[in-house]
Each structure stands twice: as C-alpha cells, then as structure tokens.
DNA sequence: GCTTTCCTTACGGGAAACCGTAAGCCGATA
DNA sequence: TATCGGCTTACGGTTTCCCGTAAGGAAAGC
C-alpha cells in the first residue's frame, strides 16, 4: 500500500526528525536515518546484500563537513552512487536549494523522482511527494513549478558558461583567449569572446557583465 | 521546573515540527507555534493582555515572503517588537545564519538569550540552549565556524554594498553618481566611486569587478 | 585667525572594453 | 574546381574604465 523501507540522509538533526515524523504520519514503518552520505551508501549496500533493499531514499543536497572524513560529501554524489548500486531506487530530494537550473538537472541527469524545497509547507509537500512517487509519478514543489515554467530564458551554452566562469574568477576579458587556447576550446579569438558576451547581454537585456555574473550566480549557473 | 509557555516562530513547517518535538522531549507543555512574525507578535500581545505571558520565544531569523502581506518579515524585527512589548521575554534564535558578526549583534543589540545554528546536532543543541536559558545563562552553539569569514577580515561598508548592488543591477559605473545623488548618498563623485572599487579589489586581491560581484553573491552580501 | 589633515572631487593620460566592418578560413554543394 | 554561406578572426574608432595627481572644501587643532 505504501513504501515499506525508507532511508533518510540528512545531516541536520532537526530536519531529520521532522522527516521521520512525516513518514510516521503516513503510516510508513520507522525509517532508517543517517547523518552522512557514506553511511547512507553503506546501508543501501547492506540492504541489497540481505535481499531487502530500500524502497525510497529521501536525501538532502548539501552536507556540512566536520571532523568525520567522508568519501561522499554531497547529495548529488550520493544519489549517483546509490542509483549505480540499485538503479530502481526511488529518490526524493529534500533541500533548501532554490535554483531552477540545479533542480532541473537533478531530474534530468540523476533521474530523481521528486523534489521538495525546505520552505513554508515543506512537511505537507513532502507527504504529497511521497504519495506521488509511490504512484510512479514525479513531484516538484508547487512554488517551483511556476518558476520552471517561467524559465523561458535564453539558454547559455557550455562555451558561454566557460567564459563567464573565467571572468568571475578574475581573468580579464582580453586574457580569456589565452586560457581558451590552453584548453583547446574554440573559438578562442578575443573577438569571438567579445561577441559572445555582447550577444548574452543583448538577449538577456543586461547592460554590463557585472549584471550577467549576478544573474548566473542567482540561477546557480556558476 | 522548566518553561511552561513557549512560542515558536518559524516559517518552515518541518523545522517548526522538530522544535515542537524537541520541546516535548523536555517535558514542556505543547508550545504555540506560528509561521509568520505578525502572528507571533499578536500572540505575545494577547498573552500579555490575558495576564498569561510567554516564558520563551524560539524564532528563526529569515522568513520567506509569500502571498500573505506581513508587517514584520524578519526575526530581528520580531524580537525587537516583542522585547518592546515584554522586556523580560526570553529569546532563543534558531537559524541557519553562521556569520559571527551577525550573531554577536543579536546578543548585543537585541539582547537574545541563546543562539542555535541549524546544523548537524541542532536538536541536541536546542535542548541545551533551552536548559541554559532557563537557568538565566546565555547559550551559543559551539558549532559556529567562520572558516571563510575570518579570511576576509575586511568588512564591506554599507556604501560599498550600495555601489556593488547598483553595478550588479546593470547600472554602469559612470552613471552610479547620478543614482547616489538622487538618494543623497555621499560621496557621490565618480572619482570616489572609482576609488572605492579600486580599494575593494586591492584588499580582496581581485582583478576585476566581475570577480567582486561573484564573491558578494557567494557570501550572500548582495 | 591660520594651518593641518582628511575627505572629496576634477582632470587627464593610458588601458581595457565595446562594437561595427571587413577580411580570412573552411566545409558544403553544384 | 569554383562558389557560396557560415563561422572565426583581425582591425579600427569610440566609449568606458582605470588610476595617479592635484585642486577644492570642511572639520579639527594650534
């Protein structure tokens, strides 16, 4: 009738507690919970060995580093490793991440089944998400759905992101060609770089590169 | 023996739930909880009127805006207003903020009694904090790290942040003086603006303004 | 009163960025 | 092969930015 064996990976104790409670509210048996990605992966592996695999993984994205050395320190890596181990594992990400690009990538590149943002009604959202995912649908929090739709924006190419990154790291524009040539990225001419920035500013209706950098930071592009 | 009447102000439902549970673990009667600052203030006022004031306020710092128009939209303002209404109200802040300067200001300027950062052992920390505050001591979670913070001992002034903001919004440098004059911000001369940017780049060892913008975005300054 | 000092601003030369034009390169097609 | 079209680059002129210098201007001190 519902998920039976759930694993929670979340470093914040308080968040971990409330996810446990949310699962309990749904009548799901007490879930296993861990505070480190490495532990999560170990659990998944053990469960597979014992022929009693997890039905669902609920994980955060950012895990804070502390004295405990960990191999895996990010939710994305955990998901990747977990799916690699058990490809049919359902996954819901429960995170404060708010950047559409990043979240879209989770669905597209990692094949997650649901995303719930830590926000006002996150507990209710999480319940809905679990329900949806159980029914083999994907779920995205309501406050994000619109944002993704709104994103009719111009799509930056890898090349664009590369040169924007260089600029944001302090490489001045006229020296960008040097770095492009070193990495065999073409076009590498200064003129091409200039034109590319010009096009980006024009399309996004920005008046300077600083605004472009700010935009990319907000969108999680860089 | 312990706090009797506690109010929780926290917009994230999940965080709210876990604070409630933490209080329950301590044998504190079910606390009132609200998701908006305005509601919190109303509750405090009503409790005072009924001669049954709150013993403790546990509040977040950042509250997300939504469709509901609110007068108070930040934890700091809530605390200020609450203390103004009931000066002996004990206050514990429960937030993800980890900039020491900001937290120090909470103790110094708002007279809060405890600070617990949303982090790995936050539920345990919160229990300790409640215990400490009940015994009329103040509490700060040991956890506060300032790894990146310490490196930039140089603090950006309000003026700095203003002109950086303008730049990131697409105002080109030579037009910044116009905006400064309109808002009666001095110095407003282009030369002063230039010098200020120059100083910031020098101190932070940046080579262009794009890098400065990226830095400020990462730090949450803008 | 008059310095002294600090802050602000104006100015100017040089560097970088901006932007249009035109030339060069290369693959595709007839 | 020759021609075309698209992409890349080189080259200038203009604007903006960068940065040192020096001139104003206000407050503090003698």
Furnish the topology, listing elements before pairings.
The structure is a homodimer of 222-residue chains.
Chain A: E1 6-9, H1 13-25, E2 32-34, H2 37-49, E3 56-59, H3 75-85, E4 90-95, H4 100-110, E5 114-117, H5 122-134, E6 139-140, H6 142-150, H7 158-168, H8 176-182, H9 190-204, H10 209-219
Parallel strand pairs in A: 1-2, 1-3, 3-4, 4-5, 5-6
Helix pairs in contact in A: 1-5, 2-3
Chain A binds a DNA duplex (30 and 30 nucleotides) through residues 172-174, 186-192, 194-195, 197-198, 209.
What does this protein look like?
Two copies of one chain form a homodimer. By secondary structure, chain A is of the alpha/beta class. Chain A folds into two domains: 6-150, 3-Layer(aba) Sandwich (Rossmann fold); 158-219. In chain A, 51% of the residues lie in helices and 10% in strands. The first copy, chain A, is built from ten helices and six strands. Chain A has helices at 13-25, 37-49, 75-85, 100-110, 122-134, 142-150, 158-168, 176-182, 190-204, 209-219, and strands at 6-9, 32-34, 56-59, 90-95, 114-117, 139-140. In chain A, strands 2-1-3-4-5-6 form a six-stranded parallel sheet, with helices on both faces. In chain A, helix 4 links the parallel strand 4 and strand 5 (114-117). In chain A, helix 1 (13-25) packs across helix 5 and helix 2 (37-49) runs parallel beside helix 3. The longest helix of chain A has 15 residues, at 190-204. Chain A is elongated, with a radius of gyration of 21 Å. Chain A starts with 5 loop residues before the first strand and ends with a helix. The mean pLDDT of chain A is 91. The interface between A and B is large, with 39 and 39 residues. The structure holds a DNA duplex (30 and 30 nucleotides).
């Amino acid at each position: 009738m519902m998920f039976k064996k759930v694993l929670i990976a979340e470093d914040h104790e308080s968040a971990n507690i409330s996810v446990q409670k949310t699962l309990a509210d749904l009548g799901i048996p007490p879930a296993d919970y861990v505070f480190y990605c490495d532990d999560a992966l170990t659990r998944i592996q053990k469960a597979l060995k014992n022929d009693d695999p997890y039905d669902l993984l609920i994980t955060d994205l950012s895990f804070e580093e502390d004295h405990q050395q960990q191999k895996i320190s990010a939710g994305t890596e955990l998901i990747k490793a977990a799916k690699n181990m058990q490809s049919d594992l359902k996954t819901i990400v429960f995170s404060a991440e708010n950047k559409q690009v990043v979240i879209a990538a989770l669905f597209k590149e990692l094949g997650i089944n649901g995303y719930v943002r830590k926000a006002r009604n996150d507990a209710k959202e999480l319940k809905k998400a679990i329900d949806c995912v159980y029914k083999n649908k994907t779920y995205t929090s309501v406050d994000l759905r619109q944002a993704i739709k709104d994103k009719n924006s111009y799509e930056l190419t890898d090349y664009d992101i590369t040169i924007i990154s260089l600029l944001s790291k302090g490489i001045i524009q006229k020296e960008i060609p040097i770095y492009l040539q070193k990495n065999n990225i073409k076009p590498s001419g200064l003129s091409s770089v200039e034109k590319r920035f010009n096009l980006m500013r024009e399309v996004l209706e920005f008046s300077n590169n600083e605004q472009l950098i700010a935009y990319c930071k907000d969108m999680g592009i860089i």
